[in-house]
Structure to design on (829 residues):
């Protein structure tokens, strides 16, 4: 098991280097030189040259990448040229918001998706199954920015039950904090549950046709016990993969949702950094997010091994 | 400003009898102290240190107006009035201005405001070693001297007849900050600004909220009225408006590219739509040195082909106000005849025909939804008169260098709302200026621009500027599409918002009814 973990961890290094290199390249290819952004309407060619020199932008790209990487390895992710904040400070301020959003969205997605999937699998082909499969398909095609605005109009403007935008830290006001997160998390969950539901439903249908389920039924076990204990665990391997990948998708969704609901999370930081060409923050945040994503997949791999000993022992 | 206060009309008609007695007891415009408001802005504020952020954007300006003071402020007639400066005088050539400062004013950190402090603000921005982007906007000021505690002298490179008005904007250049604070805090100062203003920074959560609390020792006794102002970045226009509707925000910034909500607010009795039509305009410059724009007939034809009313309908539901000169309704320059060319597609067609050669060119548009939209509308107008325009989308930041290097045939530009036309008109049209984008040089135009900047008599300056407008319009070296119009929407209970000069939503003296 330890060897397995070490091997997996080792694979993370090239992945992170590849991600950082790609980010660096893409950021450099963005139109609009940083020097022009900083100088604005006084961007005369001479001033641009001087500033590019000061900021090291006239160095070859591989050199800039290596010197950045060198600092990163030493734990120095740099400072925003715009706000003077370090990447660490900026990420530390924003991370709790995004983590909470993703966690709540994932919980809500599972809370909707799993029961619906089980109910559908039990009577697959029935009226409920057909209705929910259809709705899931419909929900999959609704973009988050649309469902976000619809939810705001319904719950914030019309009913006045929940706030439209804003945020309060959990440690300041736990109940208030959750109130601010209901609509953003629900928006993301609405896009998440159809995937969860469809995957779990089809796995579950397959599992329910296995002989040992028939045996369990024959033994006279309670239907709920068969469903939740005997059928759910072996059906959830794909679900776990999906949940892991979803974390990555949620980061993408968070960019939009955090903007609409004005949540001060990593997504907003990322968008702001792109618009202002704040490359240091941009690279730092992307590296951080990529690291998180890779780590999440690592955890998923570990969970497989826990759930299915065949993987752990290397003869899957 | 046209503050469309439907709520008041509504109250008069429907609630008049019931509230009549209450209104007798309280004067209609009683400034009520206390309370707090939440302001919904578009952008995250990066900070307030000019060396770090360069210039303040619209969101930062709202905060700056509350945190800092300027030497002067602009009253609702557009005239400079005393703020941190009590009085001023100028030399005969308008190159030296002397300000007498208000005594006894203290920064929020307790250090005194005086001529030395004001000079330190200027020197820090001007110092070439600091490489401040903000230095561009004070390039015309040679130096600032502090001969005694309360006297501040501005020495200018070029004459400026209207300097006190120019100093009114709470920009990174003219908002006075505490030298002691920026020296003590270093890198941290950017997010811990200290001024003399009516509000003190209480707390700031990046991306979420900036909380300002009433300055109990403000020099202007009795002001401000509110105890607290919360500034929040709400980047999405729809949810920003929804936050106003649901009561989480009391006032929000908006612009004419959100016409649906602006028109909704106009009809809603619970809201007040604040509008200010400033000076300046959205403008475009032809490069007159390259074909086909080296021929005045082509330039005139293209300008006459644009139907601004239709265009306004297409891009902003008709909210955009057509501009026929670079000054706009917000400027004191009013022309009987600004020389604007008529909208006349037939004449435009005839001119293109007369030119004889095919008219094909590229126009730069910013790579944004707005830029594309505007470009496509113009493309259609021009197609109808026989000219083929190809849209070239480029990044906003790249527009500037392309313009400086004259690598364009037709480029968008902007003339922003400033209290005086001189700085921008001189830069945009005088021979030899780096932003005289049209590459057009004319001795008559030059002498008009020079005369306008050295004449104190406003009427004579108006004559000059109208002659300048006639010249530019007739030669069609630049053209203007729409005036700069600024919007804010508030709850109908919010009162006392001043004109939004330069688009600044200044909430530092508002109150809630």
């Amino acid at each position: 098991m330890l060897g397995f973990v070490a091997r997996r961890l080792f694979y993370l290094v090239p992945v992170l280097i590849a991600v950082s290199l790609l980010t660096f390249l893409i950021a450099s290819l963005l139109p609009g030189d940083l020097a022009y952004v900083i100088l604005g309407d006084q961007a005369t060619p001479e001033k641009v040259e001087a500033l590019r020199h000061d900021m090291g932008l006239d160095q070859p790209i591989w050199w800039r990448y290596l010197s950045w990487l060198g600092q990163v390895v030493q734990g120095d992710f740099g400072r925003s040229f715009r706000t003077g904040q370090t990447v660490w400070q900026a990420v530390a301020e924003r991370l709790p918001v995004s983590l909470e959003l993703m966690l709540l969205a994932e919980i809500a997605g599972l809370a909707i998706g799993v029961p619906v999937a089980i109910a559908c699998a039990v009577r697959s082909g029935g009226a409920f199954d057909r209705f929910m499969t259809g709705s899931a398909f419909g929900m999959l095609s609704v973009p988050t920015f649309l469902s976000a605005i619809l939810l705001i109009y319904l719950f914030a403007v019309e009913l006045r039950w929940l706030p439209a935008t804003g945020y309060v830290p959990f440690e300041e006001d736990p109940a208030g904090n959750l109130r601010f997160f209901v609509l953003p998390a629900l928006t993301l969950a609405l896009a998440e549950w159809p995937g969860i539901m469809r995957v779990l439903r089809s796995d579950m249908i397959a599992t329910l046709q296995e002989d040992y389920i028939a045996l369990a039924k024959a033994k006279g076990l309670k239907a709920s016990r068969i469903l939740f204990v005997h059928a759910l665990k072996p059906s959830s391997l794909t679900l776990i993969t999906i949940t892991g990948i979803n974390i990555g998708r949620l980061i993408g969704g968070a960019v939009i949702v955090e903007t609409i609901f004005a949540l001060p999370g990593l997504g907003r930081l990322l968008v702001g950094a792109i618009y202002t060409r704040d490359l240091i923050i941009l690279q730092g945040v992307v590296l951080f997010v990529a690291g998180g994503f890779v780590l999440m997949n690592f955890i998923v791999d570990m969970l497989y091994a826990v759930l299915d000993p065949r993987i752990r022992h290397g003869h899957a | 400003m046209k503050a469309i206060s439907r709520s008041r009309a509504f109250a008069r008609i429907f609630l008049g009898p019931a509230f009549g007695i209450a209104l007798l007891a309280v004067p209609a415009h009683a400034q009520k102290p206390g309370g707090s408001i939440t302001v919904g802005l578009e952008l995250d504020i990066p900070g307030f240190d000019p060396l770090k952020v360069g210039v303040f954007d619209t969101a930062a300006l709202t905060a700056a107006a509350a945190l800092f003071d300027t030497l002067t402020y602009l009253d609702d007639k557009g005239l400079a009035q005393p703020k941190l400066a009590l009085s001023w005088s100028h030399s005969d050539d308008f190159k030296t201005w002397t300000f007498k400062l208000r005594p006894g004013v203290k920064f929020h950190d307790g250090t005194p405001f005086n001529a030395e402090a004001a000079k330190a603000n200027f020197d820090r921005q001007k110092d070439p070693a600091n490489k401040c982007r903000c230095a561009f906007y004070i390039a015309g000021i040679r130096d600032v001297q502090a001969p005694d505690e309360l006297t501040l002298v501005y020495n200018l490179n070029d004459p400026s007849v209207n300097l006190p008005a120019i100093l009114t904007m709470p920009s990174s250049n003219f908002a006075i900050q505490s030298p002691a604070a920026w020296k003590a805090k270093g890198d941290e100062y950017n997010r811990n600004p200290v001024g003399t203003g009516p509000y003190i920074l209480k707390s700031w959560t990046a991306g979420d909220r900036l909380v300002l609390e009433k300055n109990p020792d403000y020099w202007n006794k009795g002001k401000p009225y509110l105890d607290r102002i919360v500034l929040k970045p709400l980047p999405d226009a729809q949810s920003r408006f929804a936050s106003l509707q649901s009561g989480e925000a009391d006032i929000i910034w908006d612009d004419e590219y959100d016409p649906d909500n602006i028109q909704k607010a106009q009809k809603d009795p619970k809201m007040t739509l604040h509008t200010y039509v400033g000076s300046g305009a959205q403008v475009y410059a032809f490069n007159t040195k390259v074909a086909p724009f080296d021929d005045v007939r082509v330039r005139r034809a293209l300008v006459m082909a644009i139907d601004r009313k239709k265009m306004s309908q297409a891009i902003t539901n008709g909210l955009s106000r057509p501009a026929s000169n670079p000054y706009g309704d917000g400027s004191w320059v009013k022309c009987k005849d600004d020389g604007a060319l008529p909208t006349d597609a037939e004449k435009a067609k005839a001119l293109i025909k007369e030119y004889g050669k095919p008219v094909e060119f590229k126009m730069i548009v910013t790579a944004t939804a707005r830029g594309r939209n505007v470009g496509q509308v113009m493309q259609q107008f021009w197609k109808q008169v026989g000219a083929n325009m190809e849209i070239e989308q480029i990044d906003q930041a790249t527009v500037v260098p392309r313009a400086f290097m004259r690598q364009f045939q037709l480029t968008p530009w902007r003339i922003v709302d400033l209290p005086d036309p001189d700085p921008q008109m001189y830069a945009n049209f005088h021979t030899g200026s780096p932003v005289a984008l049209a590459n057009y040089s004319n001795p008559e135009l030059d002498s008009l621009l020079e005369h306008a900047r050295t004449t104190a008599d406003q009427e004579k300056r108006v004559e000059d500027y109208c002659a300048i407008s006639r010249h530019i319009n007739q030669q069609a070296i630049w053209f203007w599409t729409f005036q700069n119009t600024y919007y804010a929407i508030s709850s109908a209970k919010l009162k006392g918002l001043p004109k939004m000069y330069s688009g600044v939503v200044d909430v530092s003296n508002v109150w809630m009814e």
User: Anything to note?
Assistant: DSSP finds 16 helices and 19 strands in chain B. Residues 1-28 of chain B have pLDDT under 50 and may be disordered. Chain B touches chain A through 47 residues (CB under 8 Å).
